[in-house]
Amino acid sequence: VKGTVLEYEEGVKVTSTTFDPNSGMEDIPANHVNLTYKLEKTENGTLLTIVQGDFYGAEDGEKRYEESKSGWKDMVIPMMKKLLGE
């Protein structure tokens, strides 16, 4: 996966574009999707918020959206929890 950092606030937020060059899609800006990680302090620790989108104008946008949802739910989040000891 490749991308470009669009916004960075140390310890608070990072937003970048994401694109899989092995997807078979044309590597054009419309096929890059933004991904944002936000950190917020809470009473109990830190809250991580992940926002990915907008798939609307991207090639195979609906399919990519559904794959992304299942990927985060079934693979990425469980692995993050395992690595963080939760």
Question: Please, what is the oligomeric state?
Answer: single chain
| Overall helicity | 25-40%
How much of the sequence is in beta strands?
A: 25-35%
Mean pLDDT: 91
Number of strands: 4
Q: Structural class given helices, strands, pairing? A: alpha+beta
- The coarse overall form would be globular
Describe the main β-sheet briefly: 4 strands, antiparallel
Output the number of helix runs: 1
Helix/strand order: EEEEH
Through-space gap between termini:
27 Å
Radius of gyration: 14 Å
Spans of at least 5 consecutive residues whose pLDDT stays below 50 are none
Q: Which properties best describe this structure?
A:
single chain; 86 residues; alpha+beta; 4-stranded antiparallel sheet; 1 helix; 4 strands; 28% helix
Helix and strand layout, with pairings?
Blueprint: E1 5-9, E2 13-18, E3 33-42, E4 45-53, H1 61-84
Antiparallel strand pairs: 1-2, 2-3, 3-4
